[in-house]
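Q: Please design a sequence for this.
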């Protein structure tokens, strides 16, 4: 049976740290595995907490009177030295709920005001992002945005262009641009669903 035997913290950074796991595989062999985590201390790793507390939040928001545009950001990412299309997103601050974080992040990244929807827990509970390399998990908040686009709340390290994309632009983006995978799946919903957020109806 696979199990963790020892955890060593390798870095001490504010937003992301690397941990080395000493483990055994299902046949009893020795394994060394590296995990990137938002946890600042070993005790805060998902391995130890087994919690569903989200590290971050992703926001899928529609915009416009007809709610026929989706709110995207085209953001420079150092990891690929390139711009990529994503949903507004960010970390949940201490003392915040993920819905509060969603409202704050949309304001900071776009200048717009987000009105979150209340949906069944199964649609917005935290899910893991890239489990092969990190224990990070994020909640998803759905809603409608309004107001005027502004960059006044952007941090110096954030290089972001706000994009309000209709279906034709979404088709182009999916065909021609670099897109974060979670965003891409939701954009496919945006293209195909006749009723905005129709997929959020609880089953049966």
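A: Design:
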């Amino acid at each position: 049976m696979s199990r963790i035997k020892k955890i060593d913290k390798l870095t001490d950074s504010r937003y992301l740290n690397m941990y080395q796991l000493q483990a055994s595989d299902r046949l009893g062999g020795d394994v060394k595995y590296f995990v990137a985590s938002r946890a600042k201390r070993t005790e805060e790793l998902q391995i130890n907490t087994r919690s569903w507390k989200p590290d971050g939040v992703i926001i899928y928001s529609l915009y416009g009177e007809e709610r026929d545009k989706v709110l995207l950001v085209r953001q420079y990412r150092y990891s690929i030295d390139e711009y990529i299309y994503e949903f507004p997103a960010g970390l949940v601050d201490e003392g915040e709920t993920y819905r509060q974080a969603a409202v704050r992040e949309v304001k900071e990244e776009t200048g717009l005001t987000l009105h979150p929807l209340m949906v069944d827990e199964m649609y917005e509970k935290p899910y893991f992002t890239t489990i092969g390399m990190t224990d990070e998990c994020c909640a998803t908040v759905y809603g409608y945005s309004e107001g005027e686009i502004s960059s006044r709340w952007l941090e110096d390290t954030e290089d972001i262009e706000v994009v309000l994309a209709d279906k034709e632009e979404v088709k182009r983006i999916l065909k021609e641009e670099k897109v974060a995978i979670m965003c891409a799946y939701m954009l496919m919903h945006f293209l195909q669903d006749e009723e905005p957020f129709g997929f959020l109806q609880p089953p049966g």
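Q: Thanks. Anything notable?
A: Residues 3-49 form one domain. The chain has two domains: 3-49, 56-197.
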